[in-house]
Design a protein that fits this description.
- The chain folds into 2 domains: about 250 residues, Bira Bifunctional Protein, Domain 2 (BirA Bifunctional Protein, domain 2), CATH 3.30.930.10; about 90 residues, 3-Layer(aba) Sandwich (Rossmann fold), CATH 3.40.50.
- It contains 15 helices and 16 strands.
- Helix 1 packs antiparallel against helix 5.
- The protein binds histidyl-adenosine monophosphate.
Length: about 425
């Protein structure tokens, strides 16, 4: 078997093309996201792909893997340090402050869809350019919002066709209770430092909470007996978490309280959650995740304002849709094929094409081909209902041959009637097809 020759230029490692055949999956996701956002009163926001490096250092966290190891950073011609956004939440909060959205009725509900960039090691479900959609509700402290955010995330997934998921929830406390828990955790882990992986030995100094989330076998044994944040919450966080769980019970949403779920981003307080595919037992490629971020607005220079949100990775969702054989609508075939023979006919075909297109009729053509047989073959492959043929004679007579590909009959019509006749014939073919069914 001959090996396929490598193209001279290839997409950058970890990035890829999403080809027309794939688009029906992506279209379905986008449509569902727009619909659910509308139903739950979220307004669409698009933020720039390039943001100041400092925005993510301050929020996602200087010591988080995302910022420390995975961020695409560069300097602009004027010497500004910028990065390709690794996630959407900091940008949305920046936009909230910059555009004075605080004066709007609370909570301000915003959603986004777009590419994110993380320079991680590419593997299944992990790309360097990937796509997320995210929902953020800014300005409300009540845990009912946390429940509604989870409900929204699950609603999007179930509407896409992914109903069997495993929801993981945890509370990692707030400024009041987390420092105490951190101390306890560090003292537990310090005594077991030798049993931790290299990364976690570092994390012990920079981000001990993150060790709880490590998937290395060495660490999972240590973590199994580690103190758990839910046992060390202050009364306020405890009440918040209990109410959230009651809301989830009320909504009949099943969940797993996962004491090891801490999330890799620094801005979370209280609620954190992830949604795993049913067969992803360790959550190595979570479909989505989110949580509460009550200090984030303040951290970016705004007034103290709580927030909660989530993001879901579309690449992973599309993989899951394929695994689950979710049905997506095929791109419909064009209704009419326009075939031409000779220079004059080719030129006239351009305006016929425009006339049909303006009338809402989908048309395919092969203007680059002169051979009629080849053009008709393409028409057949596309499965069109009608073919319009303009040869040299027709182009001089201002006529066109109209051929019914279903019934097989054909006739000559004048150019001024082409749109009306095509419409009539398409309607007839549709009616006959309905009767046959
Ligand atoms: P995250 O957990 O970092 O959270 O990302 C959310 C989702 O994006 C992941 O669950 C996954 O599906 C997808 N994702 C992340 N990295 C990759 C990758 N390299 N390749 C493919 N998919 C990936 C956030 O980004 C937070 N901003 C979520 C949030 C919103 N929290 C509050 N509001």
């Amino acid at each position: 078997m001959s090996k396929k020759k490598k193209a001279k230029f290839q997409a950058v490692r970890g990035m890829r093309d999403i080809l027309p055949e794939e688009q029906p999956y992506w279209d379905k996701v986008r449509k569902v996201v727009d619909k659910v956002a509308f139903d739950y009163n979220y307004g669409r926001i698009d933020t720039p792909i390039v943001e100041p490096v400092e925005l993510f250092e301050r929020t996602t966290g200087k010591d988080s893997d995302v910022v420390k190891k995975e961020m695409y950073k560069f300097q602009t011609a004027s010497g500004k340090k910028v990065s390709l956004r690794p996630e959407g939440t900091p940008s949305v909060v920046r936009a909230y402050i910059e555009n004075g959205m605080r004066t709007k009725p609370s909570p301000v509900k915003l959603y986004y869809i777009g590419p994110m960039f993380r320079h991680d090691r590419p593997q299944k479900g992990r790309f360097r350019e990937f796509f997320q959609f995210g929902f953020e509700a800014i300005g409300e402290q009540d845990p009912i919002l946390d429940a509604q955010i989870i409900q929204t995330a699950l609603r999007v997934l179930s509407s896409i066709g992914i109903s069997k998921t495993a929801l993981q929830v945890n509370s990692i406390g707030c400024k009041e209770c987390r420092p105490n828990f951190n101390k306890l955790l560090v003292s537990y882990l310090k005594n077991r430092r030798q049993s931790l992986c290299m990364n976690c030995k570092d994390r012990l100094k920079t981000n001990p909470l993150r060790i709880l989330d490590c998937k290395e076998e060495k660490c999972t044994q240590v973590i199994a007996q580690a103190p758990q944040s839910v046992d060390h919450l202050c009364p306020d966080c405890k009440k918040h978490f209990t109410y959230l769980l009651e809301c989830l019970d009320e909504l009949k949403i099943t969940y797993n309280i996962n004491p090891h779920l801490v999330r890799g981003l620094d801005y979370y307080t209280k609620t954190v959650f992830e949604i795993w595919a049913k067969d992803d037992e360790e959550g190595r490629t979570a479909l989505g995740g989110g949580g509460r971020y009550d200090y984030l607005v303040e951290k970016l220079g705004g007034k103290k304002t709580p927030g909660v949100g989530f993001a879901i990775g579309i690449d992973r969702v599309v993989d899951e849709m394929k695994d689950l054989k979710v049905k997506v609508s095929k791109t419909p075939s064009p209704q009419v094929f326009l075939a031409q023979l000779g220079d004059l006919a080719k030129m006239k075909s351009l305006s016929i094409f425009q006339g049909l297109e303006k009338a809402g009729i989908t048309v395919a053509e092969s203007f680059g081909r002169g051979n009629l047989r080849v053009q008709l073959k393409k028409a057949n492959q596309l499965g069109v209902d009608l073919v319009l043929i303009m040869g040299q004679r027709e182009s001089l007579d201002e006529t066109v041959i109209i051929k019914d590909m279903v019934g097989g009959n054909q006739e000559v019509i004048t150019l001024d009637k082409v749109v009306a006749d095509v419409k009539k014939k398409l309607a007839k073919i549709k009616k006959e097809a309905r009767i046959k069914k």
